[in-house]
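User:
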Amino acid sequence: MQFIDEARFVVRAGRGGDGSVSFNREKYKPRGGPDGGRGGDGGSVIFRATEDLQTLEPYAHRNLVKAERGRHGSGNNRAGEKGADVVVDVPVGTLVYDEDGLLADLSEPGQDFVAAEGGSGGRGNGSFATSTRQAPAFREKGLPGEEREVRLELRVLSDVGLVGLPNAGKSSLLAALSAARPKVGDYPFTTLTPGLGVVDEKTYREPFVVADIPGLISGASQGRGLGNRFLRHIARARLLALVLDASEDPEGAEATLRAELHVAGLSGKPSVVVLNKIDTLDDELREYLRETFPEAVQVSALTGEGVAELRDLLEKRLREMSERETVGSNGVGPTEHRVFRPTWKGLRVERVEDGAYEVSGEGVERLALRTDWESSEGVRNFQRELEKKGVVAALRRAGAESGDEVRIGEVEFDFQ
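Assistant: Predicted structure:
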């Protein structure tokens, strides 16, 4: 399966079912009355994080994901069946965006997010019966489900991210540290997608994940090379290992890496410096590098020299970071990232350029959507509700006169 870390498509929830207009006409029940049931709610589109996927490839060519609509209500007060939800499995580490920004960060297995909520079903005529209105012959229509275009962005979750210039030996180092078997070649950009390996030693408290991030180059944060595509994965690593080719200007390589991380806003992440390919150096050059990089670890992914020491150092640093995070959190776990956008629940009346009056507000817009405009009794009920909600009075205060056009959402009618 191809590694894809971004996908864009439309999610559309199901519409709610319409209520029913029905009257009980059973024998021996002459006063049965209205018994129309309500419609079922529409299904929702839900994103759920799973460890069974490592790519967004299943959604790379999708244009639309939609849920079922709710079934209509029927007589004898029978409610319609709810539309089936659609659960979209995505890899752990997936971020969900819409045009306004981040909606959810699915960073834990099993975590889910309702991206589009199904519309609620409409009430049947049985719900409108009162002591003064004993035989209502109208119903409500179901509301449409939510619809939005979403962008999914996968950021690989890892404990350690191996970052370096092309051909620094990151893939070979990943293979030496773990049981992973990435593609290794003696040419730049051998690695085209992030690779993961698990380090699981019996002496360690718990295993940790190492990610091989495709090579950065100078200017990667501005779009050069492959690097800027994978800066998002570097952002998810808890600890960065800056892998330098000890035989090819390690000072310049470190300066380039740190400059790119700074521009990308990642310079504050904890890091260690790893000098790879020391098997190609003589003793004099090794001593020089010890003086130049006093805190760096010298390794050879090819011969295995220094790999065990590096593995122990990474485990120690991660354990210390976990202990600090536990102390600093006061026992409070990570919080989900959610963006809540308040809905306008009041009432607004304004005159637009063409002379019509536009009425907005969640309650009145829902009322217009629920109204069955083919039923004269339903339209009369709509007019009564407008008076009760103060819409008619607000229109008059705004200067509306009989015959003026009024718009509520997609509904247009003449003011009476």
